[in-house]
Write a structure and sequence with these properties.
CATH topology of one domain: Rieske Iron-sulfur Protein
Number of helices: 8
Radius of gyration: 41 Å
Helix content: 40-55%
Distance between the termini: 42 Å
Order of helices and strands: HHHHHEHEEHHEEEEEEE
Number of strands: 10
Largest sheet: 6 strands, antiparallel
């Protein structure tokens, strides 16, 4: 894993620990506030509370009659009433009974912060996780050698590989001697095997470079940069030839390694001597 990937992973861990600290601190503060509110609730002589004083209200005639009726009730009814003890309710959790607006807002903000950190962490992990799909950024099995060569020959155009963002074209064997003085590594090995894998981006400003059937060159429609069949710069503002990828042969198949972009050859490189074979498109 690169230094930038390690740095991003460290940032994710620090942010996650900060979110956990904020959440636990807010919960502890809310719990303490709720308990203090339960102790200083109504019905106690807390700060600011005053004991009610004053004379009892005078009884009316209706109240006196009701009291007399109750005194003459049967002993059995009184005994039954006395035997029935009221159920004692368990005290409610202070956190459930007394959640203030401030507590609600604190918990909501903490929850949203946690969700944001979690989403960012998942995105960072998915970005840093190595690709196993075989697409761009990995080694791509392009296909059978015979089928690809047949298609390139019959259509008179390079073979486009969308999952590798690559133009795959043949390289003439009689030009390998000149290529040895310019190219190295997996790119040269691919040329020796008869193939070149060209990155589809123009090296001038990054436009996608199409194939021109008239000139049999790659011609960028954005600013007119032109490259021959093997991606060597021929005209336009491009500062070098098309960037490329290493090519290897696996059995009867061609494999393009898109894990590393190899910089194109310098301006003026011409190992094949291919000129324009028709009208230009750009």
């Amino acid at each position: 894993m690169s230094d930038s990937a390690l740095l991003i992973a460290a940032i994710v861990v620090v942010v996650a620990l900060a979110a956990l600290f904020v959440f636990t601190t807010a919960a502890r503060r809310d719990r303490a506030a709720a308990l203090r509110g339960g102790e200083d609730g109504p019905g106690t002589d807390g700060p600011g509370g005053t004991a009610g004083t004053g004379e009892a209200e005078q009884s009316t005639g209706r109240d006196i009659e009701r009291a007399a009726v109750l005194e003459h009730q049967s002993d059995a009814a009184l005994a039954a009433a006395a035997a029935t003890a009221p159920a004692v309710r368990a005290p409610m959790d202070p956190e459930v009974l007394d959640v203030t607006r401030r507590q609600f807002m604190n918990r909501g903000i903490t929850a949203f912060f946690g969700l944001g950190v979690g989403g960012f962490s998942l995105a960072a992990i998915s970005f840093l996780w190595p690709s196993r799909s075989g697409g761009f950024g990995s080694k791509v099995n392009v296909g059978k050698i015979d089928e690809i060569v047949s298609q390139i020959t019959s259509k008179r155009e390079p073979f486009y590989v969308p999952e590798a963002r690559t133009w795959l074209t043949t390289y003439p064997k009689d030009a390998v001697a000149k290529a040895e003085g310019v190219y190295t590594g997996a790119v040269l090995e691919g040329m020796e095997a008869g193939f070149v894998a060209l990155y589809q981006k123009c090296v001038h400003l990054g436009c996608r470079v199409p194939w021109c059937a008239g000139s049999q060159w790659f011609e960028c429609p954005c600013h007119g940069s032109q490259y021959n069949r093997v991606g060597e710069q021929k005209a336009g503002p491009a500062p070098r030839g098309l960037d490329r990828f290493g090519v290897s042969i696996s059995g009867d198949s061609i494999v393009v390694d898109t894990q590393e972009v190899v910089q194109g050859p310098p301006t003026g490189t011409d190992t094949t001597g291919q000129g324009a074979e028709g009208p230009h498109c750009a």
